[in-house]
Amino acid sequence: MKTEQRLKELGIELVPTRAYNFANGETFVRFDESVRGCDTFVLQTHTAPVNDWIMEQLLMLDSLKRASAIR
């Protein structure tokens, strides 16, 4: 089953997200829609290099909290 079909069955949409690394190695994460007052779920793959993906996921969680996501 394709991801789009699964999301449609659940009645949810993906929020467009931008994440990239600056030249100095710092990671930037931004959600392109407001998440204020929303329940949010973060799905992240953890392939090599695992530390980079975990850090990106933690930055996403911090960003959601600062953007006033309910939970």
Total strands: 2
Give helix % range. 25-40%
Q: What is the CA-atom radius of gyration, in angstroms?
A: 13 Å
Strand content: 5-15%
Look at the helices and sheets and give the structural class.
Answer: alpha+beta
- Average pLDDT across residues? 90
Strand/helix succession? HEEH
From the N-terminal CA to the C-terminal CA, the straight-line distance is 28 Å
Describe the structure.
With 71 residues, the chain is an alpha+beta fold. The protein contains 2 helices and 2 strands. The chain has helices spanning 3-10, 50-66, and strands spanning 17-21, 27-31. A two-stranded antiparallel ribbon has the order 1-2. The longest helix has 17 residues, at 50-66. The chain is globular and about 40 Å long.
Write the layout of secondary structure elements.
Elements: H1 3-10, E1 17-21, E2 27-31, H2 50-66
Antiparallel strand pairs: 1-2
Descriptors for this entry?
alpha+beta; 71 residues; single chain; two-stranded antiparallel ribbon
